[in-house]
Write a structure and sequence with these properties.
This protein has helices at residues 11-18, 37-47, 66-77, 97-100, 126-136, 143-159, 166-181, 187-205; strands spanning 4-7, 27-35, 55-64, 83-89, 104-107. By secondary structure, it is α/β, with parallel strands linked by helices. Strands 2-3-4-1-5 form a 5-stranded parallel sheet, covered by helices on one side. α2 packs parallel to α3 (66-77) and α5 runs antiparallel to α8. GO terms for molecular function: DNA-directed DNA polymerase activity. Its EC number is 2.7.7.-, 2.7.7.7. Keywords: Nucleotidyltransferase, Transferase. It comes from Helicobacter cinaedi CCUG 18818 = ATCC BAA-847.
Length: 206
């Protein structure tokens, strides 16, 4: 059975809704702050336990380690009989493109509105990118503020109907990972590679 990715800001109420109608012994919930390789190994072990009825394995985390995701690829693509996998994340880019391509994605809308991205992604220039970076020199936004900016850039690209390749999506995966794992990572180290790649993409389409 194909797995499902739920994108939601609040995990607990969603998990409660998902497990309705299931007996306790047929549900396994792995809720973590950071989902790591040891968690992936535990999930795989639980997956191969014999079950008489359709069962759910739910993974919910703010951060998903890349090695842990890679370890889950095969079992997500070919789950054992009577098992459905559900992954919950706050942003789909917390998950690798290889994971996202194997699962159906359901996005739960939040009341939180994304701030518009500072630049027009349809008309990027090197001068605008330079000024954007210059304005952010010396600033130290929080992880949450940077995360919102990354999300708003992705949203702006989607609104502009700029399709991203798997390689380009991996740059966003890297940006999110940098923001999650290193509180001292400079803002421009995260955004400059993304903006330059988008600029190059736009130039190639002209």
């Amino acid at each position: 059975m194909i797995g499902i990715i739920h994108i939601a800001q609040h995990f607990a109420p969603l998990i409660e809704e998902l497990v309705l109608g299931y007996e306790e012994q047929y549900v396994e919930v792995f809720e973590r702050e950071d989902f790591k390789i040891d968690d992936a190994k535990e999930v795989i072990a639980q997956s191969y336990l014999t079950r008489e009825k359709q069962s759910l394995i739910i993974l919910a985390a703010n951060k998903y380690n890349h090695a842990a995701q890679n370890a889950l690829l095969k079992i997500i693509e070919e789950p054992p009989s009577k098992i459905q996998f559900i992954l919950i994340a706050k942003n789909k880019n917390a998950l690798l493109p290889t994971i996202r391509s194997r699962m159906r994605i359901i996005t739960h809308k939040s009341n939180l509105e994304l701030p518009p991205f500072a630049l027009n992604v349809k008309k990027l220039s090197l001068q605008e990118i330079y000024h954007f970076c210059k304005q952010n020199e010396g600033k130290a936004p929080s992880k949450e503020e940077t995360k919102l900016q990354i999300e708003s850039l992705l949203f702006a690209l989607n609104e502009a109907e700029i399709k991203l390749t798997h390689r380009e999506l991996s740059l966003f995966d890297t940006a999110i990972k940098l923001n999650q794992n290193d509180a001292t990572e400079k803002h421009n180290y995260i955004f400059l590679p993304l903006l330059l790649r988008i600029y190059q993409k736009q130039k190639s389409l002209q």
